[in-house]
Write a structure and sequence with these properties.
Helix content is about 50%, strand content about 5%. The protein is an alpha/beta fold and about 425 residues long. The chain has 19 helices and 6 strands.
Length: about 425
C-alpha cells in the first residue's frame, strides 16, 4: 500500500509595500510621476460594484510597474485621469481577463495601445484552471486569496484587507506575464497569442439590445401579449428607478418577482401588495411605482409581439429537420476541430468560436474549398492564425461529411 503523500500548501502572497489609496490631487500627481518613472509593462486591474450598483464604472484602479511600485487610485475622488493616461501611453498593459475591465477603464479615459491578457495566455497554453489565483499558484507557487472579488467596491472608505487583495491582483501580474510569454515562445504560440490579445483590445462594443426587457429571466413562462406588456412595464419601471439611484435592479425587486406578477397580473394595488411572490427590498416601499407599471401594462394599446425577429441560428439539435445539409456539415467539422485543438494543446473554443463554425456550416461558401471557408471565417471574426489552422480541415470535412466510427473487427476464435 502506497504511503500517503503530504499535501503542501503554497505560501500566501503578501504586498511588497504598504497599501494606500490615491484620493487627492497631491497623491495623484505623485502617483503619475511614479508611473512615468517606471519602465516596462504596466499591470492594470479595476474593481467594480457589480451586483450592488447599476453602473459598471470602476471604483478602484490598480497599477503596478517595475520601478514605480503599486498605485491604487480612487477614480471617484480623482475623476480626471488625463495625466495618468499620458504617463501610461505606449506601454504594454498586462491584465487578467482584459475584456472584463477595458470598458470601465475606457470610461475614465484609460485606453491601452497594447495588451497582454494573462487569462487568455493561460487558455492558449492549455492550463486546466485559468483564474488568477490558480495561475499564480501554478507559475509562482504562491497562494492568492480571492475572498473579496465580489465585494461592494463602492464602499467608502475601503477596508484595508480589500486594499491588500486589490494590490496583489497587480503586483504579481508582471511575473506571471513574463513566465507565460516564455512558455508561449517555447510552444510556438507567441504570434497567435499576439493576434488574440489584439483581437480582445479591438473587440467592438456590443450594441444595446433593442428590447432589453426581453432578457428578463423567466420571461419564457409569461403567456399572452397583455401579460408580456405587464412584464415590459415592470422591467422599464425598475430599470429607470435603479438607474436613478445607481442600484443593481435585482437588489430592488428580483426578476422572479416581476415575472410572477406578469404571469397572473393583479387588478388592484392592494392585490399586488398582497402577493407573496412579489418580494424584494423595494417591493413594498415603492408599491405605487410598481402598481403604476402594472396598470400601464394592463391598459396599453401598444402590445408587444409574442416573438421578435432574430438573426440567431436555430439550436443545433433542430438542424437535422430545419437544414439537414448544415447538420451534416457541422457534425463532420466538429471532430476535426477537436483533433486540431488537441494537437495544439488549447481549448476548442479558442481554436475557433463555436458560433463561427455554426455560421459557416449553416451558410457555406460556393464552391466549398479552403479559400472560400477561410474568407467566410474571416467575415465571422476569425483571426489569421485560426483561418490557417482550420480552413482546410473544415472544407475537407464539409465535402466528405461525417465519418461513421469504424466497425469493430470480428472476434476470432
Amino acid at each position: 500500500m502506497a504511503e500517503p503523500t503530504e499535501q503542501t500548501t503554497a505560501p500566501d502572497a503578501v504586498p511588497a509595500q504598504p497599501v494606500e489609496v490615491v484620493a487627492d490631487a497631491a497623491a495623484y500627481r505623485d502617483a503619475v510621476d511614479r508611473i512615468r518613472a517606471g519602465e516596462g509593462p504596466i499591470a492594470v486591474d479595476a474593481e467594480r460594484a457589480s451586483g450592488f450598483r447599476y453602473s459598471q464604472r470602476a471604483y478602484l484602479i490598480q497599477l503596478f510597474r517595475r520601478g514605480s511600485g503599486t498605485v491604487l487610485i480612487d477614480p471617484i475622488a480623482v475623476p480626471d485621469l488625463t495625466e495618468l493616461a499620458k504617463a501610461m501611453a505606449g506601454a504594454e498593459w498586462v491584465l487578467h481577463a482584459a475584456s472584463q475591465d477595458l470598458a470601465c477603464l475606457r470610461e475614465v479615459g484609460l485606453d491601452p495601445e497594447r495588451v497582454f491578457d494573462t487569462e487568455l495566455a493561460a487558455r492558449l497554453l492549455g492550463f486546466e484552471r485559468v483564474g488568477l489565483g490558480a495561475v499564480v499558484e501554478q507559475l509562482l507557487g504562491l497562494h492568492l486569496a480571492k475572498e473579496h472579488s465580489a465585494a461592494d467596491w463602492s464602499t467608502r472608505p475601503l477596508p484595508k484587507p480589500w486594499l491588500v487583495y486589490a494590490a496583489l491582483d497587480v503586483e504579481l501580474l508582471l511575473d506571471v506575464r513574463d513566465q507565460e510569454a516564455e512558455l508561449l515562445r517555447s510552444a510556438g504560440k507567441a504570434a497567435l497569442a499576439d493576434e488574440e490579445f489584439e483581437a480582445v483590445r479591438l473587440r467592438p462594443v456590443k450594441p444595446p439590445a433593442a428590447q432589453p426587457w426581453r432578457r428578463l429571466s423567466g420571461l419564457h413562462t409569461v403567456r399572452g401579449a397583455r401579460n408580456l406588456a405587464v412584464a415590459r412595464e415592470l422591467w422599464l419601471a425598475r430599470d429607470a428607478y435603479a438607474r436613478a439611484i445607481d442600484t443593481a435592479p435585482g437588489r430592488l425587486v428580483p426578476d422572479a418577482s416581476l415575472v410572477s406578477v406578469a404571469r397572473t397580473p393583479p387588478t388592484t394595488k392592494r392585490e399586488l401588495a398582497a402577493m407573496r411572490s412579489f418580494n424584494g427590498r423595494a417591493s413594498r416601499s415603492e408599491i405605487d411605482r410598481w402598481w403604476t407599471a402594472v396598470d400601464a401594462g394592463l391598459t396599453t394599446t401598444d402590445l408587444p409581439a409574442a416573438r421578435v425577429p432574430s438573426e440567431a441560428l436555430p439550436p443545433p439539435r433542430a438542424w437535422s429537420e430545419r437544414n439537414p445539409e448544415a447538420d451534416r456539415r457541422l457534425k463532420a467539422a466538429r471532430p476535426e476541430l477537436l483533433r486540431i485543438a488537441g494537437e495544439l494543446a488549447l481549448p476548442a473554443e479558442n481554436l475557433l468560436s463555436p458560433e463561427a463554425l455554426r455560421r459557416v456550416s449553416w451558410s457555406p461558401p460556393e464552391p466549398i474549398d479552403a479559400a472560400g471557408v477561410g474568407e467566410a471565417l474571416r467575415e465571422q471574426g476569425a483571426r489569421p492564425w485560426q483561418v490557417v489552422a482550420t480552413a482546410q480541415a473544415i472544407a475537407d470535412a464539409f465535402v466528405a461529411g461525417p465519418q461513421d466510427p469504424p466497425e469493430p473487427e470480428p472476434e476470432t476464435s
